[in-house]
Amino acid sequence: MQLPLNRLPAVKLARMLSAREVTCEAVTHSFLDAVEQREAEVRAFAWIDPERALNIAREFDRAGGLGLLAGLPIAVKDVIDTAGIPTECGSPIFAGRLPQADAACVATARAAGGYVFGKTVTAEMANFTPGATRNPHAPAHTPGGSSSGSAAAVAARMAPFALGTQTAGSVIRPAAFCGVVGFVPTRGAIPRAGVLQVSDTLDVVGCFASTVEDAALLADVLSMRASQGMVTKSAAPSIAWTDTPWAAQLTASMSEAFSRVVRLCSDHGASVRQAVWSDLFATLVDAQRTVQVFETARAFTDESDSARERLSAPLAALIDEGRAISAARYVSALQCGRACAGTIDQLFGGADVLLAPSAPGAAPHGLESTGDPTFNRPWHLLGGPQINIPLPRSITHSASDLPLGVQLVGRPGDDVRLMAAAYWLEQRLLQASA
Amino acid sequence: MQLPLNRLPAVKLARMLSAREVTCEAVTHSFLDAVEQREAEVRAFAWIDPERALNIAREFDRAGGLGLLAGLPIAVKDVIDTAGIPTECGSPIFAGRLPQADAACVATARAAGGYVFGKTVTAEMANFTPGATRNPHAPAHTPGGSSSGSAAAVAARMAPFALGTQTAGSVIRPAAFCGVVGFVPTRGAIPRAGVLQVSDTLDVVGCFASTVEDAALLADVLSMRASQGMVTKSAAPSIAWTDTPWAAQLTASMSEAFSRVVRLCSDHGASVRQAVWSDLFATLVDAQRTVQVFETARAFTDESDSARERLSAPLAALIDEGRAISAARYVSALQCGRACAGTIDQLFGGADVLLAPSAPGAAPHGLESTGDPTFNRPWHLLGGPQINIPLPRSITHSASDLPLGVQLVGRPGDDVRLMAAAYWLEQRLLQASA
Fold first, then answer.
1. Rounded to two decimals, what is the model's pTM?
2. How many Å apart are CA B112 and CA B218, to the nearest integer?
3. Residue of A nearest to B222 (CA)
4. What is the ipTM of this complex?
């Protein structure tokens, strides 16, 4: 039986489109069918226009000769500017905002033959107050956030790709909760011009997709290294695993699944050892939060000073908290991040990558919170690449439909090695579930 | 004869203040006297409040126990947020804007015992349309820009320190035109939260001061490495000099003065050779401009979309130009910068630093332009540290009062080595003029 187009990997769709074995219109139709079936429940999109999408697809079919993205649709988080398409940042402050220029990442994706399929729901201004999106696997549960709609759209097969942003865990956590691949490249790899600033030090543009190869295709284009090919199929990597100093916060099922993943890596020939945390590295969680909150208060100065009544109470409180943080504490937090990044081999040892839980467990019940970023904060302050890999049922042993995810973390700049390890792990997990 | 306090180096003032050999009030009075004498002509300040400054100084004198900046005043470019002090960005769009939080760099300086002495005139939104500031050495000439008031305030001894920002040459060029030290650290060394974004890839916070040691004192605090001490007094550095592929644009006096500096370095035992430009490096000027203009169009989307009539015609045109730049051209420009940074030793050879002109010549006549950034663009895209060092009359052989400057450029991250070389060169220049 043939899978519907929207269930094929993006890399396969791109090959078929380039070979003209399928039309952009048919591909777009397939994703629009999924939108038709799922969107009323999932609520991933802040804006979508099926007719516009089909017109672009037909024009692509006429013009031909597209780039690496071959005419594929991309869902874009609504804090990323899109020319002539509303970009409202999940806040009434930005209601009706219609930028006239694409963000750099959107322009780059479009130049490579992608197009803006729709804008996805974000938590308020890429922070913590959720939008309307529900977890596609269980609508009473959060999809995670702040890139809520991007993760949910890919999980519900309503888009092959989505763009998101991460300041703490806004890509990795929703990817884990929704059961998709979420990739955050090394800080600075993808230009941020035209993206709402939350924390100048921490903000990173990231990618959602269904497979590691798909995420690498989009990330390669956006980080302008497409010619290098990000996924190299390599031998078993060396892995330092860690359930982190916050392991007591893991659910039993996450903890058990994580142990099974470590064992699977070892069984398949990876060199596996446990990472050792120094006292300095254990302060990364607090330090990341300090940098984020201090800088968020600066990024949203104008909104807070002139439109405070249109901020959610939690965001207004966060800004107040950020203003009250002393410069000395902020400087210490930044210094902690730099010191850890400068001595990162203490944690990695000789390993290629770290392996850690992506979240404390599955998506919590309720839509009033996007979940806990504790397991994301330390890696994000280090500034290196991070990727969530969803776990198959054979590993989770779960009775529920809610996914679990593990993440691989690389040294800053080591994106190619991280993606090779991620591909290796994804393939071993697929074998295990076959 | 005793020099007035405002003519002493900041490092000396800091030592005297810490030892309580002088009061903050007396120091502040001395700079306010200079403001009284020079500001009507120079117009360096967008905002200054002498009574407030004196009150802060007196409170410092009462409290004591200040940090490395010891109660010294700092002039702050008006694109950098200051809590409770107008921050209008040189644009009517921001008239009356009164942020309630200090930018991260201002908060850091204040935590180290500095205080905001005044806000300095910036070219419109840190771009190219000048404000009211005149060159302190010749009021019919531009002070350079966009950090016009910061350079002029330090040159006129109205402040010991000033903060600026640079996207192309907005620190180095006004420092050269005004005859002060201007230091741009490695991209990312000083946090930018609370600073107007012009180009996310390129914007850097920089420092103005009267001497290399003074600039290092402020930069050490802001880049959170104060304990390391940025100026090490080292032996003669190895220097690769270059008048760049744009040497034909240098004035005769700049060209001759530059040759004399090269000879002086050699005469004092520096290892000196000429840098060799590959074709790739020669494209850095165009590439920097492309990245800047493309990203500026994204940074000012809201201003352009909703307040276009309050932009200057040149800035509106620049935004239009940025919107019309193709993503492919933008990506090529970023790739050029990354490729050059990745092969920077081709240009540096084994040298510690590069030596180059800071500008085509002295400050041009007229106030309608801030001068030509061609000699700044290539270094700024590379992302490493840059410093302007003013030349004494014995080197410039100039009949006019207008200063000339040379710059040293370091590899990204090599700030300590750059400052050591800068201190060495500054001392040799002072010897030559003695």
1. 0.97
2. 9
3. A331
4. 0.96
